[in-house]
Every structure is written in structure tokens, then in C-alpha cells.
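Re-run with default settings, no changes from the original entry. Doing this only to confirm the output is reproducible before filing.
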Amino acid sequence: MSQLAALKDAHHGERCFIVGNGPSLKHTDLSRLRYEYTFGMNRIYLLFPQLGFTTTYYLSVNDLVIEQCAADILALPVPKFLSWRARDLIQPALMTSGGFSADRRLIFLHTTYTGPRFTLDARQRMWEGATVTYIALQLAFHMGFKQVILIGVDHDFKTSGKPNTTVVSQGDDPDHFDRNYFGKGFRWQLPDLETSERSYRMARLAYADAGREVVDATVGGKLTVFPKVEYGSLFR
């Protein structure tokens, strides 16, 4: 909780990029983000060796991702935000006897599946809104960012089925920037685009009410909730 308190409005008035994991990242010049504030999510770290740098912050709230990728996540040399539910999936050596993280860069969030809302203070309960991107939007608000730019949020999946159903990948992943992202044998949950759109609309309103904004610079993205901007124009 003390880490979250220290981060409250720590980036007041600044801008950041929330980096989704869609295939459009392959058509986005990510080298431009080296000196920007960035949020990476889930298996974004697969890109780090190619990029030559990490995102500023990392987060994951999906139990299946954390369970299967715990070692990779814990090795990341950046502040890491995970759902409090994940504490039992983390190596015991990294937890104190009281159930708290012994790694000061590992920060737990109180996230839930129910009770739709946009939380302005990340020390309180946060609704997951069917997408980790929604948690990133709430964290960015907590930190005081005035402009949040989405990239790689394609909002378009080739894999279909009942939302939130757990499936096992049978081959290469067509829905993310790397074919091994949710590669063969990986357990994951099918997307719930309807609920995520609902959460995005709540985020748009919360930012607007505070005189801030969320814009979408995803190359070819299908999400229509946020104003679109051309990625290259952000660096002129």
C-alpha cells in the first residue's frame, strides 16, 4: 500500500503509453517509446530483448497468465503490479510470513471481477472490466497522467468462442504480436469484447471529467471508444 501511496500523482500532467499485445505492434515503431512512460501487460516482455529496453511499468491480473509465467514476471527489473489473488501463485521465497511481497518492486492490487466502476485511487478496489488494459487505465489515472495513449489494443481476435471460457491453444497464436504469446499448450481465456467496451467507456468518461484524455493510436485497431490519433504524429 505504501508503494501505491508514493505513486499517487507521481506523474501529474505527463503522458504515457499503454502498450497492448495485438499483432499491430509488428507495424508500430516501438523504438520511439524508449524515453516515454509506458505500461506493459501480460507477456509483453517477449518483446524486450528485441526492443533493447523494458516498459516503465508492468502489470498482470489474469490468474492463468501469472500462474504459467510467474518466473518470467518475477525476473522483470521494473515495478510489477499483480492482482492480490495471485499472491498464492508467487514463489513463497518472495513473500513475507504475513503474505506480503518481499520484493519492493512487486505491488499487489485489489482487483475484482464484479462491481463495475472506474477507480480513481488504486489503493481502493478496482474492477477488472474483462481486460488488463482497464486496470492499466486506472493505474495511469492514479499516477496523475494527463494524456494516455493506447497502442497495440487491436480489439480484434481471430480465435472465437464463448467469452471468458478457458481454452488450451492448439498451435501458433494469431491474436498477439508473437506466435508464441499464447502458443501451443498455453491455457488462456477467450476475450469478452462487450464487457471490455463497457469498461473503456467508463474510463473515457472518468478521464474527461477530470480534464484528461485517452486517445487510441493503435495501427488499424477496431476499438471505437476513444478518439483516434496517428501514431507518428505524437512525436512531431
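The chain is about 20% helix and 15% strand. Residues 63 and 75 are 18 Å apart (CA to CA).
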